[in-house]
Amino acid sequence: MFDFIIVGSAQAGLSMAYHLKQMGKSFLVVDKESKIGESWLSRWDSLTLFTPTEFNHLEGMEFPAPKGHYPNKYEVADYFDAYVEKFELPIQFNILITSIEKKNGIFILTHQNGELKCSNVIVATGPFYTPYTPPFSIKINKEVRQIHSNFYKNSEQLQHGDTLVVGGGDSGFQILDEVSQNGLTTYFAGPDDAKTLPQEILGKTLWWWFTKTGFLSASKHSWIGKMIANRPQPIIGLDIKEILDRKNVHLVGRALDADEKSINFDKEEVSSIKNIVWATGYRPNFNWIQGLELDKNGYPKNKRGISSIKGLYFIGLPWLHTRGSATLGGVKKDAAYISEIIEKQ
Ligand SMILES: Cc1cc2nc3c(=O)[nH]c(=O)nc-3n(C[C@H](O)[C@H](O)[C@H](O)COP(=O)(O)OP(=O)(O)OC[C@H]3O[C@@H](n4cnc5c(N)ncnc54)[C@H](O)[C@@H]3O)c2cc1C
After folding, report:
1. What's the helix, strand, coil split of the chain in %, to 5?
2. I need a surface site. Which of 20, 128, 242, 339 has the fewest CB within 10 A?
3. Cross-strand partners of 249
4. pLDDT tens digit sequence for 100-147
5. Dist. CA 88–CA 316, nearest whole Å
6. Mean pLDDT over residues 288-313, rounded?
């Protein structure tokens, strides 16, 4: 029986583990994956972070790369590995928690091989939980290869022929950029007027400006925080105009519906598509935690990570406190805050 169990061993879980170790608590980190950094490693091969080194430091150990460098996913996984080793953080892998329930003051965490018990639980299972694809995707002909961006690795996964990319966020544009480079017809269901920001402005990184202007530290309750949260996020570091102007890239507007033969968009109906990459985001899923109160968006009701169930904490959720909460460099502030609360109890 542990004082604490942390579910999730990526940046949010490691940040809490660091503090629990400093406080001398008895704790265990569990993760459904078989190794550290898997949530990053499982993303697409060419992924480069949009945050430079100096905005990727976790508490107690700097990201080992020069300032201004944009790391790839392998560097992030290596950093986590070194972090675990340096602070001797106890992690048990291949444990998928399927239920958390509090009974008689004790949390019972059920997993595929049994149960774990503890007095407190920290849920660090990530800001992006269940990959979402629109319901009409099941009507599409089985011969069309469909991949959610969560499972997209590189264009070799695609069949030869026309490809559709759906989704106008960072992931959608980055994948569109990559898959359209082979010159084959690529349809894009997304906006033609997405706002973009370069990675550098007047010799400073964009994240330097974000920090200076308070963009990353504005709480979700402040007017500036509310304004940022309610607007589409700008696409960082991509020349969207160049990508959308490519001869083989066709903008088709929103994907609306489909049948066995074709897919309907705002602007046209297309029946030649052989592959679809859905960069259509994620939906929260916390129904495996018993007795939890959820907000209107399906996220746990909480005050900066402190839930309505005594002893149950959340870290790493989008906008847990600020825009920075679900970033490598931002999670440490929330971890420090939750740790202070824990220490006072
Ligand atoms: C494509 C992409 C690019 C991004 N680029 C950047 C960037 O450049 N810079 C930046 O700062 N942020 C970036 N982010 C945002 C954010 O930093 C990452 O999403 C990050 O992975 C979140 O870390 P986390 O620890 O909260 O959760 P995750 O990395 O999602 O890790 C959650 C962990 O919990 C485990 N887990 C989940 N459920 C269970 C369960 N039931 N039982 C046991 N284990 C479980 C998972 O296996 C995983 O290891 C990016 C996100 C995406 C999707």
Report:
1. 30, 25, 45
2. 242
3. 186
4. 999 999 999 999 999 999 999 999 999 888 999 999 999 999 999 999
5. 22
6. 95
* CA 39/CA 10 separation, integer angstroms: 7
Q: How far, in Å, is the centroid of ligand 1 from the Cα of 12?
A: 8
More confident residue, 241 or 215: 241
Q: Which CATH code for domain 131-195+232-278? A: 3.50.50.60
105's CB contacts (< 8 A; 6+ apart) are 119
pLDDT over 90, % of the chain: 82
| pLDDT given at position 217 | 84
Domain locations along the chain = 2-129+284-344, 131-195+232-278
Q: Provide the residue type at 197 as one letter.
A: L
CATH number of 2-129+284-344: 3.50.50.60
pTM beyond cutoff 0.90: yes
Which amino acid is located at 159 in the chain? Q
Task: Report the C-alpha gap between 172 and 328 in whole angstroms.
Answer: 21
Any atom of ligand 1 within 6 Å of the Cβ of 302? no
How many angstroms does the Cα of residue 103 sit away from the middle of ligand 1? Answer: 29
Task: Find out whether the beta carbon of 49 lies less than 6 Å from any atom of ligand 1.
Answer: yes
Which alpha helices (DSSP H) does 107-239 contain, by range? 170-179, 206-212, 223-229
- Using a 6 Å cutoff on CB, does residue 31 contact ligand 1? yes
2-129+284-344 shares its CATH topology with 131-195+232-278:
yes
